[in-house]
Structure formats: structure tokens, C-alpha cells
Design brief:
Helix content of chain B: 25-40%
Order of helices and strands of chain B: EEEHEEHEHHHEHEHEEHH
Largest sheet of chain B: 6 strands, mixed
Shape of chain A: elongated
Oligomer: heterodimer
Strand content of chain A: under 5%
Strand content of chain B: 15-25%
Number of helices of chain A: 9
Distance between the termini of chain A: 61 Å
Structural class of chain A: mainly alpha
Largest sheet of chain A: none
Strand order of the largest sheet of chain B: 6-7-8-3-9-10
Number of strands of chain B: 10
Number of helices of chain B: 9
């Protein structure tokens, strides 16, 4: 904006200046931008871990976030996993029972739920609910200079804002997943009993085939999911620019990016962790 | 309003350039020094880079080129952790207050005390009441920022910035958008802080009347450069055409 001289009496020129040109990206940017983004997220994670160990823990913030991530997400997590358990049971229980494989129904359902559906559905719900909340809150703080205010008061925004959010996710994700596993399996059991698989057979099947490893792997998976959701969403929030519109964009991006990260992490972990 | 200024320089900018992340040149070659106890007003049109200048002094932005020294420390590329030691001796009053909106006015003012001091709860309450009193807000401690008017938010922001007895206070548009009575009260508060505690103030404003009233020296920012930096009297009698235009029309039209 260096020169605004008298050359602007040409109308069409003014008009063109009023229209913000679309940003042009070359091939190079298409390759570099995702790598730079991953680098930024990794750096924020490293800074958060460092701050978690080097700074005192803000207990009040942690408790507030555990309430937000855990308690307030519980109902919708249970509802979503239960509906998945019900549908799964509707599709499989009767088919298996009529073919004489009724004693596999319980195991099949529980295995699918604790290994995959429980942690995954919990992560999706938390990404949508909590990821959006993190990005919107931090984004608003960014555009209203509250993040600058924190820094000017010699308080590290990562220690004050990101650490409690990440810890809350690390603590609450396995807890939510555990409860989701139970709700999903029980709702599956109710449906199965309605189509002829007695609850005793259902539970017997779980007892004889499901291993502790299955359960643990599901719970272990939920921890990286929680870390990814927290870091990706907080990063979007802290990088917000452009007022209310920017906050909206950051919120949407936080949910979409969190989901992508969760999907990729799920595929990677499911292929690496013991079957 | 002169005479208290000692010779110790507490803020020094040496040929500071700043380029925004999108490539816009905001500041191009600012050199400025502020003495202890001085009230320095930086005036200029909106978008001239005034807020950027304050953020560079507070270490919230890093210059693209040049050196920033605050309280004798070169903060140009100082790691955030060491920078925090400098920031504890420096208060920033943001344009719209930048109050933490999940905390009440009281908790906002108590925030730096809780973070950085070992004061007991009783001592904190005492200090916060004293600060709220100083900005004329002792009845509003229980309110959330959303329940406060713009001027009230600004005053709470000032109270928060003063909580740790800073040696330097940076004000971003402390009186803009306020009614004349509130603006006058804030101006009084700023000169009072200097009288009582010898606080050094840098005030960024386009309220030229407040600037003339408060300043020991004024710097006029235009197009990323300092056009002139002198006493209010010298500025008033300057023959520079732009300076005259600023004074006559205020800086909105410049």
C-alpha cells in the first residue's frame, strides 16, 4: 500500500482494487504447505509437553476442562455408541442366530465395539464437540488480544491454555471410551435378546472369546486421539486471524482437521497394535 | 508537566523495521528513546503502525530488523522465558481492554497477582480493591467483561496492567471512543501514576488533545516513520505541513 497517488481516477482501476484477488498457489506451495502445517502442529505438541513438565499445573483450569471434555460429552457419546451397538446387533444377531452361530454374537459385538467403535465414535464426537469449543474459545481470545494480554502479563498461553486442555483429553478420553464400550455392548445385548440370543449366551460369548488385550488396545487408542484433537484444535485457535469470520473458519477447520488426524491415527494404530 | 524525567533511558528503539507476515511494511526505520518517568505520546493516523510499535516494545512482536531495548535488556531476540522477566516490570493496556472474558473484573485484576506473587488471599483482595478504587470501578468487581461498557473495560484493563507496580506502562488508545469526562479521568490517572510512582508511560493515541495535555514529548508516526519527535510546544509551533494538518484537523483526516 505504498503508492496511492493521483493515478487512481480511473474507475475500473479502483474497482479492481476493491476486489480482493484470489490467492494464487503454485505447485510448490501445495507440497510445502501441508508439511509446514504438520511441522507447526508438532512444534505446538512439543511446546505443550515441555510446558506440562516445566510449569506448575493450573488445577482449576484442568478441572474446568475435564468437565467440558468428559462430563459434558458423556451423554452424546453414550447415545452415539449405543445407536451404533443397536444397529450392529440388528444386522448381525438374527442372521447369526438362525445359522446356529448365536454364541458368537456377544463376542462379535463386544470385539467390534471395544476395538474400534468405542474409541472411534468417542473420538469423532469429542472432535466435533470439544475441538470446536477449543478452537472457538482460543480463536476468540486471539482476535480480541486476550492471548497478547496473557503474554504481556508474563504468562505462557501454552501453559495456561493448551496444557490443561491436552491433559483433560488424555484423562477423559479413555474414561469416555470405557463407558462407551459398556453402553454399546449392553444396548447390543438388549437388541440381541429380542431376536433370540439370550443375555446369558451373549455374556458367555464375551467371557470366553474377548480378551483383556482387546479392551486395553481400544482404551490405549483413545489417548492419542485425545492428544490429536486437543493439539490440532488449540493450534487452529491460536492461529486465528480475521475477527468473527476467522473464528468461524478456525472452528470448522479444527473439527475437519481433527477428524482427518483421528482417521489416519486409527488406521496406523490398528495395523501396528497386536491383533 | 516537565522536570521529573531522569536521564536513564528505559526504552530504546534503534532503526526498527517491521514487516507483517503478509509482507506489508508497517514500520520502516523507527528510532525512539524514552527516559525514565517520561510520558511519551505517539500520535498518528489509524493504520500508521502505532499498535505495532507498542507490541514491539512489549516483545509481543519481533522486529524484522533493528534493535529493541527495554529496561536495559536487549529483547530483540530474547527467548520468551527471559522476556517474561522484563514483562513483569511492564504493563500493557490494550485498546479494547483485552480482559479475560471468563473471569470477573475482580479476577482479571487479581490475575497477575495470583500468577506472579505469593500474596495471601487477603492481601490480594486488598490490593485489587485499591486498584479498582484508583480507576473508579470499586463497585463493579463482580461483573463479567461482557457486562461492562467499553470505557469500564478499559479502566479494568488499566487496573490489571498496574497490579504488579510496573516501571513502564504502555497504553494503546487509552481514551479513544470514551466520553470526555471518562477520558479526562483516565488522563488524570496516567499523570497521577507518574507523580506517585515515577511510572514511565508510552501512550499511543489519535486523540491529539489528550496528547498535548499529557505528553512530555510527542512522536508523530506517519507511513511507518517518525515524522517528528519533540515537546508539545515545539510540535505546536512546528512548520512541517503534515504536522500542522494533524494539529488542525486531528489525525483522522490525515
Amino acid at each position: 500500500m505504498a503508492h496511492h497517488g493521483g493515478a487512481l481516477n480511473n474507475r475500473s482501476k479502483i474497482k479492481w482494487q476493491l476486489i480482493r484477488p484470489a490467492k494464487q498457489y503454485g505447485i510448490g506451495e501445495f507440497i510445502i504447505m501441508p508439511i509446514a502445517y504438520l511441522g507447526e502442529v508438532a512444534l505446538l505438541f512439543a511446546d505443550t509437553v515441555r510446558a506440562a513438565f516445566s510449569e506448575r499445573l493450573r488445577l482449576r483450569q484442568l478441572v474446568e476442562q475435564m468437565d467440558e471434555v468428559g462430563v459434558r460429552s458423556l451423554l452424546i457419546v453414550l447415545l452415539t455408541v449405543s445407536s451404533a451397538g443397536i444397529v450392529l446387533s440388528l444386522y448381525t444377531a438374527k442372521e447369526l442366530a438362525t445359522r446356529g452361530a448365536g454364541h458368537f454374537v456377544g463376542w462379535l459385538l463386544a470385539y467390534t465395539i471395544v476395538r474400534e467403535l468405542g474409541p472411534m465414535v468417542t473420538a469423532i464426537v469429542v472432535a466435533a464437540r470439544v475441538g470446536a469449543a477449543f478452537a472457538a474459545e482460543l480463536g476468540t481470545m486471539k482476535v480480541t488480544e486476550q492471548i497478547d494480554a496473557l503474554r504481556s502479563l508474563a504468562v505462557d498461553p501454552i501453559a495456561y491454555l493448551v496444557v490443561p486442555r491436552m491433559l483433560a483429553c488424555i484423562i477423559m478420553m479413555p474414561a469416555l471410551t470405557m463407558l462407551a464400550d459398556i453402553a454399546g455392548t449392553l444396548s447390543g445385548m438388549i437388541i440381541a435378546s429380542a431376536v433370540g440370543v439370550h443375555p446369558n449366551i451373549f455374556l458367555d460369548s464375551i467371557r470366553s472369546f474377548l480378551t483383556v488385550t482387546d479392551l486395553l488396545i481400544g482404551l490405549i487408542k483413545s489417548v492419542p486421539f485425545g492428544i490429536l484433537i486437543a493439539i490440532v484444535s488449540c493450534h487452529q485457535g491460536l492461529e486465528t486471524t480475521g475477527g468473527a469470520m476467522g473464528v468461524g473458519r478456525a472452528t470448522t477447520d479444527a473439527v475437519v482437521l481433527s477428524l482427518i488426524f483421528v482417521y489416519v491415527a486409527d488406521v496406523v494404530m490398528s495395523s501396528v497394535l497386536p491383533k | 508537566m516537565k522536570g521529573i524525567a531522569e536521564d536513564e533511558i528505559v526504552i530504546e528503539l534503534d532503526d526498527v523495521h517491521y514487516e507483517a507476515p503478509d509482507g506489508t511494511k508497517v514500520l520502516s526505520g523507527i528510532s525512539l528513546s524514552v527516559r525514565r518517568g517520561e510520558i511519551m505520546c505517539v500520535i498518528g493516523a489509524s493504520g500508521a503502525g502505532k499498535s505495532t510499535l507498542l507490541k514491539l516494545i512489549a516483545g509481543l512482536l519481533r522486529p524484522t530488523y533493528g534493535v529493541v531495548r527495554v529496561l536495559g535488556v536487549d529483547i530483540t531476540s530474547l527467548p520468551e522465558r527471559q522476556l517474561n522477566d522484563v514483562r513483569k516490570r511492564l504493563g500493557v493496556v490494550f485498546q479494547f481492554g483485552a480482559l479475560f472474558d471468563s473471569l470477573t473484573a475482580f479476577e482479571n485484576v487479581a490475575f497477575p497477582l495470583r500468577e506472579h506473587t505469593d500474596m495471601t488471599e487477603d492481601e490480594i483482595i486488598g490490593r485489587v480493591i485499591e486498584l479498582l478504587d484508583a480507576v473508579g470501578m470499586s463497585d463493579s468487581g463482580h461483573l463479567l467483561p461482557a457486562e461492562l461498557s467499553g470505557g469500564m473495560r478499559k479502566r479494568i484493563g488499566i487496573a490489571r496492567a498496574l497490579a504488579l507496580h510496573p516501571e513502564i506502562v504502555l497504553y494503546d488508545e487509552p481514551t479513544s471512543g470514551l466520553d470526555p469526562i471518562t477520558a479526562d479521568a483516565i488522563n488524570k490517572l496516567i499523570s497521577d501514576m507518574r507523580k506517585r510512582y515515577g511510572v514511565t508511560s508510552v501512550i499511543v493515541t489519535h486523540d491529539i488533545h489528550s496528547a498535548f495535555e499529557l505528553a512530555d514529548r510527542m512522536a508523530m508516526l506517519h507511513d511507518g516513520r517518525i515524522l517528528v519527535c519533540d515537546t508539545p510546544l515545539a510540535i505546536r509551533t512546528s512548520h512541517h505541513p503534515l504536522v500542522q494538518k494533524f494539529i488542525r484537523f486531528g489525525v483522522h483526516g490525515a
